[in-house]
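Form 12-C: Joint structure prediction
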Amino acid sequence: MRILLVEDEKKVADIIARGLKAERYAVDLSHDGQTGWEMADAYDYDLVILDLMLPGLNGTEILQKIRRKNQEVPILILTARDGMADKIKNFEGGADDYLTKPFAFAELMLRVKALLRRGPVNRSSVLRVADLEVDRLSQQVKRAGKKVELTAKEYSLLEYLATHPGRVFSRTMIIEHVWDQSFEGLTNIVDVYVRHLRAKVDDPYPTKLLRTVRGVGYSLSDEVDG
Amino acid sequence: MNTHSIRFRLVMWYAGLLTGIFLLLCALLYLNLRHFLENDLRESQARRARQIAQTLLVRVQQTGERYVASQTKDWYEPEINGRFIRITRADGETVYLSGAPKDGSFDPRQVPALTPSSQPEFSQKLKLPGGKTLLIAALNFKSSGHPAYLVEFGELLDPVETMLDHLFLQLALGLPIAVLVAVGGGYLLVRRALQPVEVITYKAERITQHSLSERLPEAHTGDELQRLSHSLNRMIARLDDAFQNSKRFVADASHELRTPLTILRGELENLSEDAQLNPEVRSRLGSVLEEIERLSRIVEQLFALSRLDAGEAQTEWTQFDLAELAKTTTEQMSLLAEDKGIAMTCQASQKVPVEGDRARLKQVVVNLLDNAIKYTPERGMIQLHVRGANGHAILEVADNGIGIPPDALPHIFERFYRVDQARANGSESAGLGLSIVKSICTAHGAEVEVQSTIGKGSRFRVKLPLLKN
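Section 2 - Result
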């Protein structure tokens, strides 16, 4: 899997490249728009991560050029501005996903994974983490074979975390997925729901699955915390 | 009619001035004419009285008084000409009195004697019993050798009066008509001249911060109005520039702040994933990450505010039911209230259709409820009430929490304002939630107001235009 990263901020580019390499992706880096476009033109990439504000060609122009070639390659836009107009313009221009800086690194990894459709994109109707079962069809949750009663929001939250066991979800991601953008800035709502979820899913059992990663977010995992 | 409008005032001034000048002219004309006609009459009578004295009375010694009387009658034919002639001797004896005029307009015998005067020539107006006025020129004729005589020559002022009455009537009728015509013409002229002002006003009303690229119409008439609209247009252009600059500034600042935040966050997240990390260090890293998240959130909110103020919030306007929005939002946030043992209810029985950016207005509800939950102690109560009344959609959030002190009330919608640090009870809020509420409301043409009593609770009310079905 080969990823093209076009990002002029060297430090941002380094962090992203490092993270992607740690996930065993091959990463080509370009620090300006012109080279970025030439590289995208010359090689077949599995994914392009594109910053919008670039010297030379800007991200939107590269996006249009790539799409004019009718390439199927998924494109993830990184941007430091999140005006609604920008977002619409780029989605119309053929972007597959959109991430606003400053983003949680965990979130970028999740989106990259989703775009590459690699690894266990769990499409089965039952998600399993240790002895926890989440049935997406009946929206039933069982822990150690016993049914757990959850409210609709608690269920959405648990299901979302269960789609990528071991992955850390930031509060922003959880809010956007389980609630909507209107709740941004209201991060304690996630904490309250996680606490209620914990009381039902974790507290009665010796193994705790819902983990808090301080400063980052939450994850569902049976790995013993190091 | 607007009595303060330039059109009204201009026409009124114009009409007043015109009426004044007309009245003055008419009065002058009338009085002058009257003076001239009376004088003329008096002159001709005096001349005739002199004729009688110099041609007849001079030789009264030779001819005798009888001859004077008959000659006077022959020459002036007073009965035919409607004249009054009387010659009186100094001892009071009447030498001659003209007969009654043929038209019977007056009776000479009823004309009273004149007030004596030492002047050689004088004139008097006499009111006759019939109401008519007789203008009499009199002459004291003295000569050595015979007694003094008083010669009176008079004529009715009637023809003069009639003529003047006629003139008065014509002026009295003509003046209002002339003024009316002038005012009407003036009104039309002023209206025509001010028509561009109406157009400019109409157009200017429609230029908002979102349509600063539009300009006012400029008529190329070369007059003051063209200069005015040109100046206004240049002012709008400068405003436009200023707005564009501030928008650009926000976009640039946004980029400049976000990039270092991204780096900080990425590096620290990377570090904290290191499994070898000592738990103490990991906890400190977590604490720094929390602060970065908070900082990012403040930056987000600030930019959201700037964008709202710059008018970029109108991208996704739809029509929707505010009551339904309030109900779902209350439901979604119910756990936050429950967590503090607060009873949160939503009353929204009928549909309340409004138009706007649904996500933004939802944020208003979220922020108001969040605020209420934050400042209401455990076991408190929060009521959300949505209704339509008098063309307005009204959304009220009332709590029985700690309330807001009166001196803080005017400031609570200001950015970063906090009633006091303790009240935020360690929450992460930066004091931007209510500013965002205010900005969203302003962008929707809505009003937001607050009433609060310390210890009793607060009531926030948002008033939006109601959509007509």
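Section 3 - Comments
Chain B touches chain A through 55 residues (CB under 8 Å). The longest strand of chain B covers residues 133-143.
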